[in-house]
Amino acid sequence: MGWSKVLIFAALLVLLAACSDDISSPVGHEFPTKLYPYEVTYDAATYRQRRDNLVQRIPSGSLILLTTNSVYLRNGDVNYDFRPSSVFYYLTGFDEPNAVAVIRETGGAPSSSQLVMFVEQRSGSSVQWLGSVYGPEGAVTYFGADSAYGSWMVGGWLKQLLASGTVGDVYANLDDNDETRAVFTQAGGDTHSVHNVDSYVDEMRIIKDDLEMRLLQRAVDVSVQAFAEGIRSIAPLKYEYEVESVFDLVLRMNGCPRTAFTTIVASGPNSTTIHYTANKRQMVSGDLVMIDFGAEYGYYAGDVTRTVPVNGTFTSEQAAVYDIVSTSLDAVLAAAKPGVSFEYLSGLNVDILIEGLLQKGVITGTKSAIISSNQYRLYIPASLGHSIGLDVHDPWSKGNYNERILRENMVLAIEPHLYLGAGDLTVSPAYRGVCARIEEDIRITSTGCEILSASLPRKRAEIEAMTNK
Ligand SMILES: [Mn+2]
């Protein structure tokens, strides 16, 4: 290395040191939610805006009570990794365990929100063993709390407030975290009506804001990169978990702490099990392997599926089934735009898939009879898709989401599939046990949709070209 290079290298080190100073907090804790080297995603204004939005949706004078996950025991003295509750995180951006948030409106027109937080405090040997936490000071400085206290104070504080006669009904994240009701009851909350706030927050979560879009795109990008490496690693005689390990490596190398859900690597006969997660079979030439994988980045979920021939070439039956699914996906993506109902897209998907099966002689009968008798559910057992976000099956999945009308900035996973059972006598023998699913993540734009996972090929010939032949 010449002197000029040494100087450039030294200058880079100084620059990196300066960057890392920018993202450190004075309380000796890493800046909130530093998810990727030198990328700061914490955005207090966005979370405040969500709280302001929420208080305008629920009756005036109400109190919103939110808790997040604890750290849960796995076995012995080993804990599961902590992951915040989604509704709590959506409204606070706070990602330490055992915290409570109380949100109230400030009054005025339009009304805005006030946030009181109760967070973990550490000192002495607990800092030595576990590291520092934000503490009440950090909750105010970085998370926009108007006031903050140690977690141990929440019971007394809440009891006093509920007894003051200034609080109307209580809205709590009851589904999001099952510890919220206990906090409420311990504070003598029986005197107040408690409602579930989750459905109000769910309506907000369905439309993604700019911060969410950035995190979702990153989660999808890492997922796509994992597929690019993972598909290359598929070969006869490899075990399913070997392929899974390649996905996991790419995930961790990209700053993602974990997958958004348990990875499915389902080869051969396992592919007929929709949620197969054991991933321990040795794959053989002639199998198809269905891989459903999603990275979690900044607590947002990617969710992508590809179906790949283990030896690099689809058989003619596998190719026929794959192409039917691929044709339907193309049609659904072309039709997805604001104003279109999810029910319409689901119907379009079923029409195309059943027509394809009939045309190829995979099944016999008439399309109308197969649909009206629900026979089609044998081959299309799952939904066409779902919303993704902080949860891989985002709130959209609750209730009758078929009635949902697509709107701009909804983000959906679209996953047409055909599952032809190994023992299904309605299916022509050569096609029994053949399953294919292809899943893309999309954002609804003002005029159509943008495929967030577009850089991962999905056409049959492209998939064949990607495999390790
Ligand atoms: Mn999915």
Q: What do you see in this structure?
A:
The chain has 469 residues and is α+β, with helices and mostly antiparallel strands. The chain folds into two domains: 3-205, 3-Layer(aba) Sandwich (Creatine Amidinohydrolase, Chain A, domain 1), CATH 3.40.350.10; 210-466, Creatinase/methionine aminopeptidase superfamily (Creatine Amidinohydrolase, Alpha-Beta Complex). 36% of the residues lie in helices and 17% in strands. It has helices at residues 3-22, 44-55, 86-92, 125-130, 135-143, 154-163, 180-186, 198-205, 210-232, 240-253, 316-335, 342-359, 367-372, 460-466; strands at 34-36, 39-40, 63-67, 73-75, 78-79, 100-105, 113-119, 147-150, 170-172, 194-196, 258-259, 264-267, 288-293, 295-297, 300-301, 304-309, 385-387, 411-414, 417-419, 435-437, 440-444, 449-451. The strands form seven sheets. Strands 8-7-6-3-9-10 form a six-stranded mixed beta sheet, with helices on both faces. Helix 9 (210-232) crosses helix 10 and helix 11 (316-335) packs antiparallel against helix 12 (342-359). The longest helix has 23 residues, at 210-232. The protein is globular. Residues 303, 413, 415, 439 line the site of manganese (II) ion.
SS-derived structural category: alpha+beta
Q: Name the strands of the widest sheet in spatial order.
A: 8-7-6-3-9-10
- Could you tell me the radius of gyration in angstroms? 25 Å
- Show unreliable segments: 5-40
Give the N-to-C terminal Cα separation: 41 Å
How many structural domains are formed by the residues?
A: 2
